[in-house]
Amino acid sequence: MAWGLAWALIGGGFGLVPAAQAQQRHIVMASTTSTEQSGLFGHLLPAFKAATGIDVRVVALGTGQALDMARRGDADVVFVHDQAAEEKFVADGFGLKRQAVMYNDFIVVGPKADPAAVKGGDVLGALKKLAGSPAGFISRGDKSGTHAAELRYWKAAGIDLAATKPAGYKECGCGMGPALNMAASLNAHVLADRGTWLSFKNRGELAVLVEGDTRLFNQYGVIVVNPARHPHVKQALAQQFADWVVSPAGQASIAAYKIGGEQLFFPNAGK
């Protein structure tokens, strides 16, 4: 009876191994609110799971917070959009390699009536006008990739936010969707990524006012977290995601994601 029980337990143990392993076939990805709120992951990740059997659990944060999460070892891979911060993350030994994945662009959204007369293709000129007017401007204020870009644009426009913020400037400390909601409710301006804007329904009186400036280019990258820093990181599974998203299949899936017939992100792996 003892041997029978022993064999039953051994057999049961062997039987449980595949199930346990299957439960571990998931990774945690720290990413941006723009990729999540635009609906891209709802389209992209099921295709990845169908190809590999790997679940991806997304934690959507601003890029700065996503990189901090990965620095602590709380993510296996990051998918973000602040190239300077991404390159520093790798240079500091927290990531293995940064790979370009896709791009879209930033836009300045504001009241259709354009009371500050900012409409056009010059983001720096638009910010100079906004700085000298009482027109509202909503800043993400959350150390996201979008927030980092916004701060670069203000600085390039010669406006020192640390010294004096424009009269209508408000920081929400929030994601892209909530920032757009706040701008819609206050009929204010906001810097947004085009992907989230296209998926945003509560537009009120808002419209795209500034677009087409080459400075508004918005690149996304993927980085596997370095297991030398955090040995528990699921490097092999995370690398499968990084490899897939820059592969022809992953790039085609990104290109296929559209809202109202309009493409939100443009694959550019290897460029």
From TrEMBL:
<feature type="domain" description="PBP">
    <location>
        <begin position="19"/>
        <end position="248"/>
    </location>
</feature>
<dbReference type="InterPro" id="IPR052738">
    <property type="entry name" value="ABC-Tungstate_binding"/>
</dbReference>
<protein>
    <submittedName>
        <fullName>Substrate-binding domain-containing protein</fullName>
    </submittedName>
</protein>
<dbReference type="InterPro" id="IPR024370">
    <property type="entry name" value="PBP_domain"/>
</dbReference>
<dbReference type="Pfam" id="PF12849">
    <property type="entry name" value="PBP_like_2"/>
</dbReference>
